[in-house]
Amino acid sequence: MLNGKKVVVVMPAYNASRTLRQTYDEVPFEIVDEVLLVDDASSDETVALARELGLTTFLHERNLGYGKNQKTCYREALKRDADIVIMLHPDYQYSPRLLTSLAGMIASGHYDIALGSRILGVGALQGGMPRYKYVSNRFLTAVQNLLLGYKLSEYHTGFRAFSRRVLKSLPLEADTDDFLFDNEVLAQAIYFKFNIGEISCPTKYFPEASSISFKRSVRYGLGVLWTSLKFRMQKMGLAKFRMFDSDSAKLLPDYYEQLSK
Q1: pTM of the predicted structure, to 2 decimals
Q2: Tens digits of per-residue pLDDT, 81-101?
Q3: What is the pLDDT of residue 249?
Q4: CATH assignment of 7-245?
Q5: Among residues 86, 19, 7, 87, which one has the least CA distance to residue 50?
Q6: Domain residues of the chain, as ranges?
Q7: What's the rounded mean pLDDT across residues 207-234?
Q8: Cα-based angle 175, 179, 180 (whole degrees, multiple of 5)
Q9: CA–centroid distance for 222 within its chain
């Protein structure tokens, strides 16, 4: 609990057995009430390790995608009456020790969403971020700030905290089930006028950390530009898109299995 608010950490996992324990060991349980892990049909020992660690674990029997994994994460966190939900990748790329800072931004009442930015400060390249990813990150962020009329240092971080109200309000089922999900969520949050804050977060790139290929990065970048254009077209009244319709589906019924601890 933090300021009387229940804090739940969710981990969207896929083949994370080599880094899960290290990530979990640094979770600040003095403020975190529960950790949920959703496994997207991993081929390694992620599920076995999660159960050994005592995590509340959910299993997709087939790989449904990163976005669908998050939808399961948030649905289950809300069912457990979470006031603050923080997504932490179990690949140890982001520092679990900053969970308290992210949760504090939401608990303060000043922000609806808090992001751990790899770009604030000077640590991204030193942490091993490939230069092409750094350059594309800066370019895409600049374009999005222009088209979305907002100002963030980074739209592409996977370290983020949400208030309960955000996750219950956004039409998340209108979003993709793939990697573009993260970006679509932020575009929706800005469209519906939620407040977003950022903290500086160091990042670590190493062989065990998850990362998408160059080809998928290009596809992601094109998807980011299209999402931003859809936002601008809807704002200008030139088109309507389901992802910016407040009446679109929030979260679908069960399509996955909960495992015993």
Answers
A1: 0.93
A2: 999 999 999 999 999 999 999
A3: 74
A4: 3.90.550.10
A5: 19
A6: 7-245
A7: 86
A8: 50
A9: 19
Return the pLDDT at 208.
60
* Residue in 192, 184, 167, 173 with CA at minimum distance from that of residue 228: 184
Residue 210 has pLDDT above 60, yes or no: no
Round to whole Å and give the CA distance between 215 and 94: 23
Distance (Å, rounded) from C-alpha 107 to C-alpha 127? Answer: 29
pLDDT tens, position by position, 43-96: 999 999 999 999 999 999 999 999 999 999 999 999 999 999 999 999 999 999
The identity of residue 215, as a single letter, is K
Sequence-separated (6 or more) residues with CB below 8 Å from residue 4? none
The full 3-state SS of the chain, as one line of letters, equals CECCECEEEEEEECCCCCCHHHHHHCCCCCCCCEEEEEECCCCCCHHHHHHHCCCEEEECCCCCCHHHHHHHHHHHHHHCCCCEEEECCCCCCECHHHHHHHHHHHHCCCCCEEEEECCCCCCCCCCCCCHHHHHHHHHHHHHHHHHHCCCCCCCCCCCEEEEHHHHHHCCHHHCCCCCCHHHHHHHHHHHCCCCEEEEECCECCCCCCCCCCHHHHHHHHHHHHHHHHHHHHHHCCCCCCHHHCCCCCCCCCCCCEEECC
What token pair was written down for 188? 């929706």
Amino acid code (one letter) for 15: N
In this prediction, what percent of the chain has a pLDDT beyond 90?
A: 81
